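[Discussion] Sanity-checking designs against the backbone

I'm trying to build intuition for which residues belong where. Below is a structure token string of 96 positions. I'd appreciate it if someone posts a full sequence so I can compare it with mine line by line.
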């Protein structure tokens, strides 16, 4: 027997479809950035300096971060979180 005539199943399917669509339309989650001389963070997709204290840094990444560091940033809701830094800065900004 099919589910075509079952309103409850159809409503559930519609809710699931809407939620999956919403999840798939989420914004960028990972980004690249650079720590500035004043310790602010500028990312490729948010080029406005984020002051130190307004972004988070993972404990292991904090040991290797200094001005000029190129970093991998995870966006968690509206907060930038530095998760790692690169030994080869050229991979982040096309060799610049």
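Best answer:
Here's mine. Compare freely.
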């Amino acid at each position: 027997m099919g589910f075509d005539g079952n309103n409850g199943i159809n409503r559930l399917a519609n809710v699931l479809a809407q939620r999956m669509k919403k999840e798939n339309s989420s914004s960028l989650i990972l980004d690249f950035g650079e720590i500035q001389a004043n310790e602010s963070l500028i990312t490729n997709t948010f080029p406005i300096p984020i002051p130190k204290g307004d972004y988070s840094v993972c404990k292991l990444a904090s040991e290797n971060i200094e001005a000029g560091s190129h970093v991998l940033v995870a966006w968690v809701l509206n907060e930038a979180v530095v998760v790692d830094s690169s030994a080869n800065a050229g991979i982040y900004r096309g060799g610049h």
